[in-house]
Amino acid sequence: MTKPYLITLSVGPVQDFIAAARRTRDLWFGSYVLSEVSKAAALAFKNKGATLIFPDTETNLDPNSPDNVGNKLLVLATTDNPKKILDIAKTAARNRWEELANQAKKNIPIEEVIWEEQVKDVLEFFGAWVYLEKDEDYGVPAEQGKGRKRLEQLLNAHKNTREFIANPVQGKSIAKSSLDGLRESVLTDQIKPYQKRKLGLSAGEELDCIGVVKRLGGNAEQFTPLSRLAADPWLRLLADKQIKLFNMTDVLNELSSTNLGLVSKVKGNHGCYEFFPHDGQLLYDFRIQAELDGLKRLAKDADEETRNNIENAENHLKQLQTILTNPPFNSLPKPSPYMAILVADGDRMGELLDNMNRVEDHQEISKKLGEFAGSVPAIVREFHGHCVYAGGDDVLALLPLDTAIDCAHRLAVDFNNTLRTIKNIDTTKAPTLSVGLGISHFLTPMGKQLDLARSAEQLAKSNDLLQGQSKNALAILLQPRSGAAISFRERWDNDISPKELFNNWIKAHNDQSLPHGVGYALREASSALEWCKDPCVI
Fold first, then answer.
1. C-alpha span between 516 and 532 (Å, rounded)
2. pTM to 2 decimal places
3. Is residue 268 within 8 Å of 221, Cβ to Cβ?
4. In the sheet that 394-400 helps form, which strands lie side by side, from edge to edge?
5. Given the DSSP bridges, would you call strands 473-479 and 51-54 parallel, antiparallel or unpaired?
6. For 392-440, what is each residue's pLDDT tens digit?
7. Which residues contact 170 (CB under 8 A, 6 or more apart)?
8. Which of 310, 195, 198 has its CA nearest to residue 255?
9. pLDDT tens, position by position, 107-137
């Protein structure tokens, strides 16, 4: 006999897919893979007649669709076997992962035994279900032992009882992945130097199964390098001054044809970077010299064809050096090597879900979150950035330095305006968006940049502050190449918003109405008066 069941499925691990990243491609593809396997699971639920709650029923669940799906699914299904439906969704997710993984390993020497074991052991699934005797059971308090709250309890209990599979290479000495050191390398000793370069590896670096998929899966030129984002303000300055890039573009195209991985084309993000469709690292003199040094090392073990390519590349790099040190480029300021990673998260979402207890209410919340998430890539693109992930109330994006604050403000306003339109919501308690901006040098290791941005997001939330002071804020952490990070935090609803505040300061600085050292002086004064924050000090 069929009965209505509330079913949830959590797909992971998020850490392996997203957090372990050294390049923008690792970051983007990790997010993409997690969304793709979640979409496959959601589609399997839908095909079995389940009603989607999270994600939204209008989400495009086709493979490679632009819509993102979070790693936690919630559905309502009428069935006599909820475990069977859950297993079907898990199988669909595994199949999608294996499809993406097998596409990535072509033309790379792989240790097949280790690869197969790792492919099977990558995904983690945690599922649970509860019987809904009547519709009203959906939103009952947790102590009644049923409904959505009971489902959450069961899911959390399942997550605390993980299954562990024996390591297939136990007793063998095999190098670990250089991304996170969690799994053994799947690369064989037969891998060639040019293949390692294709994988973005230097001598001695290794990759596990997930690492190879991140580097070679999907469209290899789809995502935007950090160097291109850092250089974007400088390139827009050239466009404003109508400075042509013909000679520079010709040289970069020649470097790209050497197949040495010196230059990548930027084809994604809907043509946002057509003015200069290359990564930006060779616009920086210190990167040109680093590449020349790297080519010398590569030439030592290269075959004749590769040595010819190296010699050709060296000539083009020196030509590029000449172009950048002569008019009109030598009369311009050099491009800044700093850029921003934006991490945003909705505030009081749990409170909203708890206060609206019907399935229909949660479906509408899911729909509004889907509307916001669907608009994020275009908004970020408007500010010359690239959205990595937008799922529900979570956003991860990369931005040029000069547009990051304006973009953060726009996202916060749009998020609040979208969720205020939910039926029967108290608009004074509509969720807000806390946004963190981590600003660092584009050569800073990706893991550190992500940690900085996430720390900025936590600073924006500042959950340890009193109600009315926490959340709904912009926080910025600037990490110079040397020295301690500099922090900033202000709430969006201040009389002077963070966006307006910064624009006023920038204008005053550019107009020279403020001394150049005023920032340093204020920081010194703030440190000297730190004791004033303690109410016990008289």
1. 27
2. 0.90
3. yes
4. 386-391, 394-400, 338-346, 433-441, 473-479, 486-491
5. unpaired
6. 899 999 999 999 999 999 999 999 999 999 998 888 889 999 999 999 9
7. none
8. 310
9. 788 888 888 888 888 888 999 999 998 888 8
